[in-house]
Amino acid sequence: MLTISQLAAYAGVTVRAVRHYHGIGLLPEPERDRSGYRAYDSGAVVRLIRIRTLADAGVPLARVQELLDAGPEEFADGVQEIDKGLRAEIRRLQDTRGRLARLAAGEHLALPPSVVDYLDRLRGLGVEEPYIEMERDAWIMIAAQAQPLIHSVIAQKHRELDDPDVVKLYGLLGKALDWRTDDPRIVEVADIMERLMVRAVEAGEVDADDGIDDRFVDLLDSTMAESSPVAARLLAILEKRGWRGWTRIERVPSDRLGTERPSS
Q: Which CATH architecture has domain 4-103?
């Protein structure tokens, strides 16, 4: 007869594990000797080794009892079912790891791949990271608000980047956050934006329905205006010239126009 420590040693487990298996009913309690100690026989060693083998193979303890008592066919079916569950769990964990890896890249947080590719294209044009981060945050909000439209919007943004004026505009905007409000380049940015707006009007794009809620547009525009004093001045210049907005360009009624005009 064996003591509990001898049983644990023969089966390659700890005494604590043996007591746990007793507690959950996997290993029956043995008879006790005259001194009150548990006394185990070879059958207990075999059963404990089988328990350990199944547990080490990844079988949940809740299923071990079922497999221990199963016949050959039931055992094979049970193992296949457990294997199927483990494979599904592995796929789930792999998907989770993939999402975590994408999140580690920063941009992938709440952004579809098409937007990430667009931001990477801006980087390739030399746009500086502070501006990229500001635009990224705006795209996160836009993607959440207008998810069905985001891919077509990004496709349009890619087409716009084929325009030299747009490339020049981004080159200036990428550095504009650190400018003084009297920097003459702000007027240069306004000039470029006005040319682009005129083209948009001629193409019938200004009054098109973009599917974005008006209040959400106001939120995006206010976020842009508050990003730096330069942005606020730029928007003010454009409004004096007859244009309002950043996310959605609109004409300003003629009775509200000022006199500041493009530089030559």
A: Orthogonal Bundle (1.10)
- For 161-165, the CB contacts below 8 A with 24+ separation are 161/121, 161/125, 163/196, 165/192, 165/195, 165/196
Q: Looking at the chain, which residues constitute the CATH 1.10.1660.10 domain(s)? A: 4-103
Report the candidate in 131, 240, 232, 226 with the shortest Cα–Cα distance to residue 194: 240
Position 75: which residue type? F
Q: Are 165 and 192 in contact (CB under 8 A)?
A: yes
Measured CA to CA in angstroms, residue 84 lies from 58, 75, 81 at distances of: 12, 14, 5
pLDDT of residue 262: 46
Query: What's this model's pTM, rounded to 2 decimal places?
Result: 0.53
What local confidence, expressed as pLDDT, does residue 264 receive?
40
The answer to whether the CB of 107 falls within 8 A of the CB of 153 is: no
Give the total residue count for the chain.
264
CA atoms within 13 A on the CB side of 253: 2
The encoded tokens of residue 136 equal 């990224």
CA-to-CA dists, residue 180 to 4, 28, 140, 230, 231, angstroms:
80, 81, 28, 7, 11
- Cα separation of 68 and 59, whole Å? 11
Q: What is the DSSP annotation of 61-79?
A: HHHHHHHHT--HHHHHHHH
What whole-number distance in Å separates Cα of residue 113 and Cα of residue 154? 10
Q: Are 103 and 96 in contact (CB under 8 A)?
A: no
Residue with token string 């005494």:
15
Q: Write out pLDDT tens, residues 29-59.
A: 898 888 888 899 999 999 999 899 888 888 8
